[in-house]
């Protein structure tokens, strides 16, 4: 078949019933791009002989050299099945964990997915991740078990053993899918139970609900037609249906019977000429082995193993296929094998047929998926405006009529060389056209030079899908930001407004023009005038309006789609600076372009002024640096060593010393100075330099479960802070019931985790979270008699804002000091984590009689004529009994920008730092989860590399039926650089690790430890110069930040003797 013409594809795009939007998902090196090559070859775009070798959709140079896919690429294919013609929008996605964000961008635009599993390695970590991503986006998967040739050639399994092995792989995949399904059913059940009002006489059968849920289309089974067995590199693949059709013609057995019995515990009784059940119990060959696998095994035996020419000729004749003489004579048996198999069981035919029959069309989009896409944040679909809910019908209709609203989702922006765009392709020109173009080029060059930019060699194309309406070239549309509220937009904008009008008044809503529309054809683009609903497309001209992803629509009632689910967390940071300082503007512009072109990379400027690039892993980092150097900035720059993030925390005092001797009850020494007092219990009291304010703070470690909960609830805490800020400012805020339920649930969880005498009523006294008001640290209000608005006032509790109006400003000073302290700790200026600061005393000293306050305040530059509104704020006798509690002094509210406020922030910050240092301090390291699949031969070397890099093995297990071991370990991010390369070198390429950021872990060693007991001196010596991992990390961070590092450069220096002759 020749390549489809552009007109043919345009015609197919108008029939959404026969469109299939699908992506290929798998673990790294399981054969995604090879299978994609086989599918592309069916359209004549590449030669079938080059399928698997060319890797057509890997268009980047580094993708070809490394042999892995780094970005998702789309191509449109034409497929005919009988009288039906289909358009397949195929997206190939990466399998490496560093590029899992590219998988998220691909999955969002699809209705189905082809999940590939290696027949030898089985279900791997990334296989589970992509199945979960497909599940979260509500798209239907089909399964391809690839590389079955490895079972024959490498593992040398018999056909019976291979059948058992394939059964186990199917069980593994179905177990992952079943777990996802069960969790979803239980979540829905819990939601229903919350919504329903439980009566006393209502009884519910809790056990029956999961069983009632329909899971008939959930699992993979060959007899359902959603599994293909293949070897993409050898060009063959088949489904049960194909062999049922073959044996229906040869043996006369009904195809329906064969479909039910070819996979399962059935065998063929030769005497009775019947298919019987119970093959395993009777020791018979299963039907699948007898009729399917034995034929493939005998073909491999004849062609690859024994190279029996006579048998090959018999096979070729019996199959009725033609093989070229040059293939028969070729020295490589794989060439002959591929020539036979690609005609007998072409993999493309099996996969494309399965895709067209089993994957849904855009018209079959589930209503549940539409509601999920349109429900942003904690808002429910039924709480959206009525006009917005009506758009659901437009989604489900997927209609291309003129009156339908246009809805497009852009999942990512990707950079394309300007020369590769269709409008810039070379074509014969007349003399007049050449002269005109020359003049235009000169003018553009002059304009760019005047603007200080070099010629733009990159342009951005949006990777998008039309969900409703028709996208037309030059059409203006609304760009809906992630925080856009359709209710606010509809109330602000006049009825019937279009994107051509100016809408600057509505926040998070802008307009842009879709200058060009492209058909994505792998490495090439074709220009289109319009694209109907249900199709994947490229859009040019959005680089100034869309950063990474966005929702486009002609209707302001359309809500922004929910954010993409990214599995990888950007954790690896490097600081970048140009070799020549004059090229800094080019670097800044290049980093801005890189940030737009990569869905996962982040670019930021730190407080120190460093330009920092944050990536998901080492391979991702290298790709981003190469892109920045060769494509976006085009300058020479230097990148620092990776900046490793750490966290600082405190722990409970240890009971034993470094040699496991009982410490007993050691008396802590109290410290004090003019303004600082630290008592033996760890309470820090600090007075401001102007002696007007005193604050007492105590630090204690939070339970690990609470820290984990705070980390997981970041978005919820941020929402809670926004609600409280609105209440403080007196603004009305429409809070959805679902958000209030989530906040109430979060509060209940906190109360359940903070149990015991020490944490009694703590949740009601929470003052703030930090750093940045939503971090994993807590500030508690333990000040006697100080009533302030509750953090949970949106749930109906708390005091009225008017009662605490006099203390609000100084209250903010305390919170600001806490935020600054938690943002950079005393050990190495890294953020704190899992620390609870309790303010136990907060006074403002009165050193001047009340009648002279006005003169004193004038000399200090502080207004004192403000009247307090708090209860007791005007009692003059309060000054006769010493210090007045904060909030009861009249000056408290008036001094919001005076010396008390500024010094109170600094005092609170210092008090928190000293309280932190009064407890046992520890560093927390970022940890990777490391999954390694390796053979028994190199198991020792794997453990050696892990041990050398401070790794810790959690568990290992052997894959049944193979000699492969699966090792799960944790490894500090600080030790992970160069880890994969060292692994491959030490194991001769037999093991390759997958690193995914997992959690933060406390490093057990104390960075400030010195020997104190006699046993420690005996064990470690006087210098105690054995390696302290925590101290090494801490000093490395301090050195990078330019902080003081306490270390001895020279110790016990001696004069060196000179052995020269006296002259």
UniProtKB/TrEMBL annotation:
What does the UniProt keyword field contain?
GTP-binding, Hydrolase, Nucleotide-binding, Ribosome biogenesis
Q: Give residue ranges for domain Tr-type G.
A: 17-363
Q: Does the keyword Cell cycle apply?
A: no
Q: Show the CDD domains listed in the entry.
A: aeEF2_snRNP_like_IV, eEF2_snRNP_like_C, EF2, EF2_II, EF2_snRNP_III
Q: Which SUPFAM superfamilies match?
A: EF-G C-terminal domain-like (SSF54980), P-loop containing nucleoside triphosphate hydrolases (SSF52540), Ribosomal protein S5 domain 2-like (SSF54211), Translation proteins (SSF50447)
Q: Which PROSITE patterns match?
A: G_TR_2
Entry keyword annotation includes Secreted: no
Q: Which GO terms describe its molecular function?
A: GTP binding; GTPase activity; ribosome binding
InterPro entries (alphabetical)? EFG_II, EFG_III/V, EFG_V-like, EFL1, P-loop_NTPase, Ribosomal_Su5_D2-typ_SF, Ribsml_uS5_D2-typ_fold_subgr, Small_GTP-bd
One short Pfam name that applies is EFG_III
Q: Where is this region: Disordered?
A: 188-208, 847-887
Q: Name one GO biological process term.
A: cytosolic ribosome assembly
Signal peptide boundaries? none
Its GO CC terms? cytosol; ribonucleoprotein complex
Acidic residues bias spans: 188-199
Sorted alphabetically, which NCBIfam families does this protein's record hold?
small_GTP (TIGR00231)
Its name, as the record gives it, is Elongation factor-like 1
């Amino acid at each position: 078949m020749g390549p489809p013409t552009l007109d043919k594809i345009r015609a197919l795009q108008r029939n959404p019933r026969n469109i299939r939007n699908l992506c290929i998902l798998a673990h790294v090196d399981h054969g995604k791009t090879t299978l994609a090559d086989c599918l592309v070859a069916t359209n004549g775009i590449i030669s079938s002989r080059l399928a698997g070798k060319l890797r057509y959709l890997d268009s980047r140079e580094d993708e070809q050299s490394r042999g892995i896919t780094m970005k998702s690429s789309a191509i449109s294919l034409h497929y005919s099945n009988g009288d039906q013609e289909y358009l397949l929008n195929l997206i190939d996605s990466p399998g490496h964990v560093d590029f899992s964000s590219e998988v998220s961008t691909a999955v969002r635009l699809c209705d189905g997915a082809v999940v590939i599993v290696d027949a030898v390695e089985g279900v791997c970590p990334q296989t589970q991740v992509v199945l979960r991503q497909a599940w979260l986006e509500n798209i239907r998967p089909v399964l391809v078990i690839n590389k079955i040739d490895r079972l024959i050639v490498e593992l040398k399994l018999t056909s019976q053993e291979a059948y058992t092995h394939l059964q186990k792989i199917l069980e593994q995949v179905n177990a992952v899918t079943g777990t996802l399904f069960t969790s979803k059913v239980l979540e829905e059940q819990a939601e229903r139970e919350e919504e329903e009002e439980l009566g006393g006489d209502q009884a519910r059968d809790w056990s029956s609900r999961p069983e009632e849920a329909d899971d008939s289309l959930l699992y993979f089974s060959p007899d359902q037609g959603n599994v293909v067995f293949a070897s993409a590199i050898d060009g063959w693949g088949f489904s049960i249906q194909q062999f049922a059709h073959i044996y229906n013609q040869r043996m006369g057995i009904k195809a329906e019977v064969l479909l039910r019995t070819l996979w399962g515990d059935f065998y063929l009784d030769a005497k009775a000429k019947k298919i019987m059940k119970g093959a395993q119990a009777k020791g018979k060959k299963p039907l699948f082995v007898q009729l399917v696998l034995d034929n493939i095994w005998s073909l491999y035996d004849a062609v690859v193993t024994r190279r029996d020419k006579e048998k090959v000729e018999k096979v070729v004749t019996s199959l009725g296929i033609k093989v070229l003489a040059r293939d028969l004579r070729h020295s490589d048996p794989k060439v002959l094998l591929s020539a036979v198999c690609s005609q007998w069981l072409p993999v493309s035919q099996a996969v494309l047929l399965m895709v067209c029959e089993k994957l849904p069309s855009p018209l079959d989009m589930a209503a549940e998926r539409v509601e999920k896409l349109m429900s942003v944040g904690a808002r429910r679909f039924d709480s959206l405006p009525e006009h917005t809910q009506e758009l659901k019908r437009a989604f489900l209709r997927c209609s291309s009529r003129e009156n339908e609203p246009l809805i497009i989702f852009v999942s990512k922006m990707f950079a394309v060389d300007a020369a590769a765009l269709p409008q810039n392709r070379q074509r014969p020109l007349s003399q007049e056209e050449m002269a005109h173009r020359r003049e235009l080029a000169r003018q553009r060059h002059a304009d760019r030079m005047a603007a200080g930019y070099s010629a733009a060699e990159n342009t951005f194309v949006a990777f998008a899908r039309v969900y409703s309406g028709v996208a037309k070239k030059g059409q203006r549309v609304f760009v809906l930001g992630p925080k856009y509220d359709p209710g606010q937009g509809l109330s602000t904008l006049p009825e019937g407004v279009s994107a051509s009008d100016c809408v600057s008044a509505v926040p998070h809503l802008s307009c842009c023009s879709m200058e060009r529309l492209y058909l994505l054809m792998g490495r090439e683009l074709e220009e289109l005038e319009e694209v109907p609903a249900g199709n994947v497309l490229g859009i040019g001209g959005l680089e100034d309006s869309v950063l990474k992803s966005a929702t486009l629509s002609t209707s302001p009632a359309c809500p922004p789609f929910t954010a993409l689910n990214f599995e990888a967390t950007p954790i690896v940071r490097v600081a970048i600076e140009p070799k020549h300082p004059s090229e800094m503007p080019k670097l800044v512009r290049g980093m801005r372009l890189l940030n737009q072109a990569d869905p996962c990379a982040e670019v930021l400027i730190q407080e120190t002024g460093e330009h920092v690039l944050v990536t998901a892993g080492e391979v991702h980092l290298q790709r981003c640096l190469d892109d920045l150097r060769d494509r976006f900035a085009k300058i020479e720059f230097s990148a620092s060593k990776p900046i490793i993030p750490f966290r600082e925390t405190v722990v409970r005092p240890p009971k034993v010393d470094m040699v496991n001797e009982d410490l007993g009850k050691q008396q802590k020494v109290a410290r004090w100075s003019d303004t600082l007092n630290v008592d033996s219990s760890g309470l820090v009291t600090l007075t401001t330099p102007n002696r007007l304010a005193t604050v007492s703070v105590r630090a204690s470690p939070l339970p690990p479960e609470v820290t984990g909960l705070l980390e997981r609830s970041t978005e919820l805490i941020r929402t809670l802070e926004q609600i409280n800020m609105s209440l403080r400012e007196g603004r009305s805020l429409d809070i959805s019931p679902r958000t209030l339920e989530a906040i109430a649930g979060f509060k209940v969880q906190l109360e359940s985790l903070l149990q015991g005498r020490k944490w009694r009523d703590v949740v009601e006294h929470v003052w703030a979270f930090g750093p940045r008001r939503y971090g994993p640290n807590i500030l508690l209000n333990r000040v006697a008699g100080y009533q302030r608005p509750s953090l949970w006032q949106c749930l109906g509790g708390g005091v009225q804002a008017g009662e605490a109006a006099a203390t609000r400003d100084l209250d903010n000073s305390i919170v600001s000091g806490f935020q600054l302290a938690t943002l950079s700790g005393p050990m190495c200026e890294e953020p704190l984590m899992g620390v609870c600061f309790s303010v136990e005393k907060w006074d403002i000293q009165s050193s001047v009689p009340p009648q002279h306050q006005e003169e004193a305040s004038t000399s200090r530059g502080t207004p004192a004529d403000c009247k307090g509104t708090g209860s007791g704020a005007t009692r003059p006798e309060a000054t006769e009994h010493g210090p007045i509690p904060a909030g009861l002094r009249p000056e408290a509210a008036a001094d919001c920008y005076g010396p008390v406020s500024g010094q109170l922030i600094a005092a609170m910050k210092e008090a928190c730092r000293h309280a932190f240092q009064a407890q046992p301090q520890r560093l927390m390291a970022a940890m990777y989860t490391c999954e390694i699949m390796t053979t028994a031969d190199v198991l020792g070397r794997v453990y050696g590399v892990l041990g050398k890099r401070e790794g810790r093995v959690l568990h290992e297990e052997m894959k049944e039926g193979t000699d492969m071991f699966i090792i799960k370990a944790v490894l500090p991010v600080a030790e992970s650089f160069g880890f994969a390369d060292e692994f491959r070198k030490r194991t001769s390429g037999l093991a390759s690790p997958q690193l995914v950021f997992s959690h933060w872990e406390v490093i057990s060693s104390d960075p400030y430890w010195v020997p104190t007991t006699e046993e420690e001196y005996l064990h470690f010596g006087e210098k105690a110069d054995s390696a302290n991992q925590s101290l090494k990390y801490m000093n490395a961070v301090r050195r990078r930040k330019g902080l003081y590092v306490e270390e001895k450069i020279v110790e016990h220096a001696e004069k060196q003797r000179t052995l020269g002759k006296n002259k």
